[in-house]
Amino acid sequence: MRHLLATEGMDAATATAVLDTADQLKATLLGREVRKLPTLRGRTVVTVFYEASTRTRVSFEIAGKWMSADVVNVSASGSSVGKGESLRDTALTLAAAGADCVIVRHPASGAAHRLAGWLTEAGTSVVNAGDGMHEHPTQALLDAATLRERLGALDGRRVAIVGDVLHSRVARSNVHLLTALGAEVVLVAPPTLLPSGVDRWPVTVSHSLDAVLPTVDAVMMLRVQAERMHGGYFPSAREYSIAYGLSEARLGLLPEHAVVLHPGPMLRGMEIASAVADSPRAAITEQVANGVHVRMAVLYHLLAHEEEMA
């Protein structure tokens, strides 16, 4: 891999290779008093976040440090971006300073692809940590890793993705990745929170959460992205919760083996009840833990080449 920009177009073999590497890294670190591998010693990883983040940014930083890379964090508010520097000039500056990999989150869809175009010649890899409403590939990979851990193989499994699909890069990346891995995806949302052209996606669509829950192996609740909404997409938070929130009663509709996911941050009481989020059926903290190992695996495939895991 040269860059990781999207799950669209990613084949099952590539995705499985990354997931298998994440499993190997997790097993390698298990029981170690010092969680440190020398794999990326001498490499420099730079995170550039133009949007707020906790899970993604921290897990990339931990992933890099656990693999002995030098990790540098750049926030837009504390950099020359605040003085008007362009994305291109920021990218070229980081490459010239010695960055082997730039991990970028940006509010504009396609920003990571533009960065990759500018940095490929410099030999700098780019990882998309979320670009607008487009994609968030490492989130989809860690979701797949968590589902594999709980359910085994994903081929033939049925996964419901519920809520604000319209504004969700997580939903888009998961649709591409899960279907590539052989899962069936059903989107559950009000019509106002479904993107145009969804009928061309390899999914089924439902507006009834209660009807779908008994038929799935996993349910992924999405965050309602109020910061991207301009206008009324649903009458009120209470009505949204009644129709599309995962309550304790709805948890009982799921098959016994089914797992609950959420990319976070959660709006407890609206998208998901606290009792559900904290129940053994939920794998939300496991998603975060797996996110570190998956992002280690991504950095390994981008930067380690033939070096050994040890």
Automatic annotation (TrEMBL):
Carbamoyl phosphate binds at residues 55-56, 105, 136, 139, 264-265. L-aspartate binds at residues 83, 169, 223. Pathway: Pyrimidine metabolism; UMP biosynthesis via de novo pathway; (S)-dihydroorotate from bicarbonate: step 2/3. It catalyses: carbamoyl phosphate + L-aspartate = N-carbamoyl-L-aspartate + phosphate + H(+). GO terms for cellular component: cytosol. HAMAP family: Asp_carb_tr. Belongs to the aspartate/ornithine carbamoyltransferase superfamily. ATCase family. This is Aspartate carbamoyltransferase. The lineage of its organism: Bacteria, Bacillati, Actinomycetota, Actinomycetes, Pseudonocardiales.
